[in-house]
Amino acid sequence: MAPLRRPQMVLCDLDGTLVDSVPDLTYCVDTMLERLGRGPRGEAAVRTWVGNGLERLVRRALVGALEGEPEASEFDRAYPIFLELYAEHTFERATLYPGVREGLDFLKAAGYPLGLVTNKAARFTGPLLRHLGLYEDFGIVISGDTLVACKPDPLPLLHAARHFGVDPTASLMIGDSVSDVRAARAAKFGIICTSYGYNHGLDIRDSAPDAVIDSLSELAGMLAAAR
Ligand SMILES: O=C(O)COP(=O)(O)O
Ligand SMILES: [Mg+2]
């Protein structure tokens, strides 16, 4: 792997990077399906469908696959049910991954401006971050519906770089999926990925991020070695 550039700013993805949100998402997907008179999909399937926003998750759950479109009428019935359920169960089962608190504390102590860029809708991002005690860690929070485009579009990353007055080429994204890698590459950010996140069932190494970590606690050593 190429040596990492020392960043002047760091952005974190949310689901699959900081937080395991799949247990709540699975509960809401399966309860939605039950209300529609259909059987559950289960956590293993839902884990492969997270990362492109909640609307896409519901479409995937309805067709039972990563690609494909449900009937418009079916989606129109299902989506409001899901949104109502997720509003009530945003963080009942959500947990921080091991090493996240340590990694964020290191980044803050080292003085990196920190931002959060997720494809989750803003009405859920804020409550989830607050519940987990993460909200105050970030100088900017950009959700999937904050701007006109979301990851893999580079727009949210470039918006954050502008917000902090940092050159994108001196910026680092930490994520878990191919959308994070694509957005980072298009924005000319560096990109480190977690090995434990959600990447549609594929190994994130196939997307060739600059580095792969098993825990955010590895960031201290990795950034100390960066030039
Ligand atoms: O797809 C989502 O809802 C959120 O995914 P992200 O936090 O990994 O961007
Ligand atoms: Mg993610």
TrEMBL record:
Domain of life assignment: Bacteria
Key word Hydrolase present: yes
CDD domains registered for this protein in UniProt: HAD_PGPase
Keyword Magnesium: yes
UniProt keywords, alphabetically: Carbohydrate metabolism, Hydrolase, Magnesium, Metal-binding
PANTHER family registered for this protein in UniProt: PHOSPHOGLYCOLATE PHOSPHATASE (PTHR43434)
Name of protein: Phosphoglycolate phosphatase
